[in-house]
Design a protein that fits this description.
By secondary structure, this protein is mainly alpha-helical. The chain has helices at about 1-20, 25-30, 40-45, 60-80, 85-100, 105-110, 115-125, 130-150; strands at about 50-55, 55.
């Protein structure tokens, strides 16, 4: 019940600011965020990849591998009986919201609170030292990259 209550609380706050209870949903249309067939945008990107976008470096090149990894982890979660079903359902719903959009803007930011991904990923790499070190290196480099880009006020890094 906390999730719908927090949404309603945020909607009430936005209503107080804007006078429109549904402003948080209307802004998605202004930003051209729409739902689409799952994995459609990713398939289009894999078919015609691009590196540069209007704002500079196109971060889809970073988002797509992580979305694919999250999908693989979620599929793995379906077959692992040790993982609580609530974690699997939460991960499936969260992943659906990421893959059923017409773009990947903010997808890395949306993946952060999906803790079951990290739980299962940790279970997969814990017995492989080289894989653990590789994942640690990749996440460290990404953190430094985004931190520097954010500090230099690159708008593409904020998505």
């Amino acid at each position: 019940l906390l999730i719908p209550l927090s949404l309603l609380g945020f909607m009430a706050h936005i209503y107080h600011l804007s006078g429109n209870l549904f402003a948080i949903f209307l802004i998605q249309g202004e930003w051209d965020n729409q739902l689409t067939f799952p994995f459609r945008y990713i398939a289009l990107y894999l078919y015609e990849p691009k590196i540069l976008d209007y704002y500079g470096l196109d971060l889809v090149i970073i988002s797509v591998p992580f979305i694919i990894l999250a999908t693989i982890i979620t599929i793995r979660m379906l077959f692992d009986q040790d993982i609580p079903r609530e974690y699997v359902i939460y991960s499936l719903c969260s992943l659906f919201l990421i893959v059923a959009r017409n773009n990947t803007n903010g997808s890395l930011r949306y993946m952060l609170p999906i803790f079951p991904f990290y739980f299962v990923f940790a279970r997969l790499v814990r017995s492989h030292k080289w894989l653990f070190r590789c994942a640690l290196f990749v996440f460290l480099v990404l953190q430094i990259f985004y931190f520097i880009a954010f500090m230099r006020s690159y708008s593409w890094a904020l998505t």
